[in-house]
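Key idea: predict the complex, not the pieces.
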Amino acid sequence: MPPRPSRLFARLVPAVPFLWLVAFFLVPFLIVLKISLSDPASAQPPYRPVLDWAGGWEGLSAFIAGLDLESFVTLSGDPLYLDALLSSLRIALVGTGLLLAVGYPLAYAMARAPARWRSVLVGLVILPFWTSFLIRIYAWIGILRPDGFLDAALIGLGIISRPLQLLNTETAVLIGLVYAYLPFMVLPLYASLERQDPTLVEAALDLGSTPRRAFWTVTVPLSLPGVVAGSLLCFIPMVGEFVVPDLLGGSETLMIGRTLWSEFFSNRDWPLASAVAIVLLVVLVVPIVIYREAEARRLEAGR
Amino acid sequence: MRGGRLTWFNVTSLALGFAFLYLPMLILVIFSFNDSRLVTVWGGFSTRWYGALLQNQPLMDAAWVTVRIAFVSAALATVLGTLAAVALTRYGRFRGRTLFTGLVYAPMVMPEVITGLALLLLFVAIGLDRGFWTIMLAHTTFTLCFVAVIVQSRLVAFDRSLEEAAQDLGATPLRAFFTVTLPLIAPAVVAGFLLAFTLSLDDLVIASFTSGPGATTLPMRIYSQVRLGVTPEINAASTILIGLVTLALLTAALVTKRRAAR
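Result:
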């Protein structure tokens, strides 16, 4: 550690981004919590503040006395919300599994490719991630809809005789999720596979292991940090995903991100939307903390 | 990992993986030149949807708003993100560090509906009129984290003794940063800016929550049309966006390659 410069600049370096994130990321969540405890009202903005800061202690005790957790009661009383939450978790879990199944062979093949190809292959995986998420999901509407490209191709090849009717089903949502999140899964997997020492697998083979056994007992366990990072990086945002279920899922696919959106924009129930956000946050806080720890450890290891 | 062993399995994985990633976009691009209004039937080559696009004033207005927001927010996010990265790599253990790293990593995985709702409620609470500036502030906040992570990975990778040498030779920390550190991390800072720019350009959910009546961004406009179905005009707009991003990335790749060659 060089001598800590005590100049103004040196103090501002951590302070400015820190204060920015506190003001625009941490404080907003406290406001969400506060609004989730207020009562809905047909006003502008559409909620009745229950906590009156100007009232001091009296205001605070009135707040605690009047606290009826109305929004949370509504949430737990209506099975729709629990169903949406559970089906989001299920879809995100299945999606993560599919992403591993699709992403692992791809990342493995990239890491085993000749060294001079690798940076090009990594670039090709990153490129779709830079192009619009919305457009990439939109592209699938034309492919999956009845008489779309997939149906036309499969009927043309004689594999199916009737249209598959995939659009507006959960299958379509899963295809869209795997497509949209694939770069997020492949890159951490590739990073951990590429770093591996190939002599370890060779040693296992020399000692009489079959290639398959060497893969499962050497390669896969050593790539676990990448598996964990990639899975969390995909799973967490997928639980709250809005665009994919909205465009590909039709009206039947229940996902919590969509529920929050419609409570907010269609029903204009801000306290209920905030309560949904709080519940979602509580569900995701554990994976988020694990993710942060895993990332910090990965960066330390890269030093 | 040493390479060179291209087994059939690996070649198939690569071919299938990249076909899956690129075919949908390729179809989109090809059919933007389709003369027919029927989006799945080929009716001959035509650029008429691009002409129609230029006539679509609301779409062009939205595109202009989006580019301005992306530019301002990416510039701000680059400065803030770089500062955050320096703080995370060069300040050791300072008070509030755990909270700080949490605040840097959380927005990247946080579902956008939550971030959007939280920011909107903040803007309502402080009585800020929603529109251009609120979207800009929101985009700065979530993109600065991506900049921070990119710059941070570059900062941990390079030799710190260069900075220390500059300071030993009498440079102030500020001067050492601008003459030694910044040139070394410049590629990561540029990459961070480009990523922040495209993320802002692309965002639908957070912009929908934080925008007001006056400001409609391109993704919001595209989304409202996409909900009504696939149109060749949107295919054309998508093709232009894909083309712009590809061009920007190729330029960035060439610039870094030339730099590395020097």
